[in-house]
Amino acid sequence: MNRNIYDPENPKTKKQLKDLRTPWKLWLYFFKHLPSVLFFGVRLKSLTPYKAEVTVPFKWRTQNPFRSIYAGAQFAAAELSNGLIAGHLIYGRGKMAMLITKVEIEYVKKATSLTTFTCEEGQKLMDGIQKAIDLGEPQEVTVLTTGTQKDGEVVSRMWFTWSFKMRD
């Protein structure tokens, strides 16, 4: 049960990670499945099985009347930062459902510039997915995503609880 589900040499895994890092392929995916992130101008900065960074700009599309980044735009970028890791980790592992079951948000400061959302808890996601595969029972995993501005100041912290379940 403690084995690492991620195989970096698996050709399918390599191809999917390469596709996710290819801007036009990721744009097509967003266009088809997540058009709101295109509207907000969300961008993937980096992605590995252990860490993802996603940015959201401070522009008219993301700005609320209080001159900060709209909570919905922050949420979309934050969810994407850990959702991309989870989606990559379940890719090619049979039919597995993944669903957010709980979210906790702490807004620390107004987001008034380009904001980067970072999730560094890929290993926790791997462990939960492996447990769901091994036990055949749904597993919940809570991961933290932190939003920081260009100057490094934290603007928000979001905890996403993901449920992973093997489908019949």
Which labels suit this protein?
globular; 36% helix; six-stranded antiparallel β-sheet; 6 strands; alpha+beta; Thiol Ester Dehydrase, Chain A; 5 helices; 168 residues
User: What is the assigned CATH homologous superfamily?
Assistant: Hotdog Thioesterase
Major β-sheet profile:
6 strands, antiparallel
Estimate the mean pLDDT confidence. Answer: 90
Total count of strands = 6
Helix and strand run:
HHHEEHEEHEE
Derived structural class = alpha+beta
Q: Name the beta content range.
A: 25-35%
Low-confidence stretches: none
CATH architecture heading: Roll
User: Could you give the order of strands across the largest sheet?
Assistant: 1-2-4-5-6-3
Kindly report the CATH topology: Thiol Ester Dehydrase, Chain A
How many helical stretches? Answer: 5
Shape: globular
Q: Give the CATH level 1 class.
A: Alpha Beta
Describe the model.
By secondary structure, the chain is α+β, with helices and mostly antiparallel strands. It has one domain (11-166): Roll (Thiol Ester Dehydrase, Chain A), CATH 3.10.129.10. It contains 5 helices and 6 strands, in the order αααββαββαββ. The protein has a 6-stranded antiparallel β-sheet. β1 (43-47) and β2 (52-56) form a beta hairpin. It is globular. The two termini are 21 Å apart.
In short:
With 168 residues, the protein is of the alpha+beta class.
